[in-house]
Design a protein that fits this description.
The chain has helices spanning about 105-110, 125, 160-170, 200-205; strands at about 45-60, 70-80, 85-90, 95-100, 130-135, 150-155, 175, 185-190, 195-200, 240-245, 245-260, 280, 290-295, 310-315. By secondary structure, it is mostly beta strands. It has a six-stranded antiparallel β-barrel with strand order 1-2-12-11-8-13. Strands 3, 4, 5, 6 and 7 form a five-stranded antiparallel sheet that branches. Strands 9-10 form a two-stranded antiparallel ribbon.
Length: about 325
């Protein structure tokens, strides 16, 4: 649409928020910040994306038109086997002071070349201002043939003393997803998206396809820049890598945490059957099947978020083989 001055208004195609769009360094994400809460618990938990289904629940949103009625919503199933707390890492001013390691399991020996041993460290002499745990996944419990993923996980608590005490109490133990989250809680999902390879300007940035009478190719930008400055700006849509990048989706609601078998007939497509506890998350989440996703305590919970666990009336277990 033209403006009163006669000039056309055309916003740029595609967001520059995530540029440069390069491939992720590793297949599972790294989290650098967690919310500050008073409860002594882990602030995120990893799981493996199994697939999607749909459920029926009673709408408990405060300002929804369908409040109190049964609604159908899509949901993602994330299998969450227990994680092993392999170590505790102490920080001061953003720098690592030292680490305390528990016994390294056989699964972790495939990831760590030299098994680390637990060391006697005088915590009182360290004076840390932050503490995190080093957790290891156990993919063999899911039936996936891969090395365990090792990651840092933040810890909540009122004071650094409480957090250190909690970390030392769970060192060398397995933690369940029920020790971290509860039904109805809001989370942020961090994962590496599906990789789509090398793509052109139209698919990668949403550039408009040119007129059929164009002499040159139609699926490219009309101009890559003016005469001056005599260079191509980095903001010009170009072909390149698409997907396989770390992304965070905020405020996803946990609908249910359970261990009752809800595997569809024939198993989840490209995944299989559920063998452990699982989390049902409302909506879709980034990543492909069997990819590790990290669920973090919501860092900016919505204002009008419903409280308590939702009332689920039906979970679809229809076979996905014909999809």
């Amino acid at each position: 649409m033209g403006t009163s001055s006669g000039k056309g208004h055309k916003p740029r195609r595609g967001s520059l928020a995530y540029s440069p769009r390069k491939r992720a360094k590793r297949i599972y994400p790294r989290i650098g910040s967690w919310p500050k809460i008073e409860d002594c618990k882990l602030l995120d938990f990893p799981g493996y994306k199994a697939g999607m289904t749909h459920i029926l629940k009673i709408d408990d949103r405060k300002h929804a038109i369908t409040k109190g009625k049964e609604v159908q919503i899509p949901a993602t199933i994330v299998e969450t086997p227990p994680i092993y707390i392999a170590g505790v890492r102490f920080y001061r001013d953003g720098k690592v002071l030292t680490e305390i390691w528990a016994d390294v399991t056989k699964d972790m020996e495939r990831k760590i070349c030299k098994p680390k041993k637990k060391r006697d460290v005088k915590i009182d002499d360290l004076d840390p201002d932050d503490v995190r745990v080093i957790a290891s996944t156990v993919p063999r419990k899911v039936g996936i043939k891969k090395k365990p993923e090792i990651m840092e996980i933040g810890v909540g608590g009122k004071s650094i003393e409480e957090r250190v005490k909690y970390c030392m109490s769970i060192l060398g133990k397995e933690i369940s997803v029920k020790d971290v989250f509860r039904d109805g809680e809001y989370i942020d999902v961090v994962a590496v998206t599906k990789g789509k390879g090398f793509q052109g300007q139209v698919k990668r940035w949403g550039v408009k396809i040119q007129n059929r009478k164009t002499n040159d190719a139609r699926r490219h930008v009309g101009s890559i820049g003016p005469w001056k400055p005599r260079r191509t700006m980095w903001t010009v849509p170009m072909a390149g890598q698409m997907g396989y990048q770390t992304r965070t989706e905020y405020n996803k609601r946990i609908l249910k945490i359970d261990s009752e078998d809800i595997t569809p007939k024939g198993g989840f497509l490209n995944y299989g059957v559920l063998r452990n506890e699982y989390v049902i998350v409302k909506g879709s989440i980034p990543g492909s099947k069997k990819r590790l996703v990290r669920m973090r305590v919501a860092i900016r919970k919505p204002i009008h978020a419903p409280e308590g666990a939702p009332q689920i009336t039906f979970i679809s277990t229809k076979s996905q083989q014909g999809v």
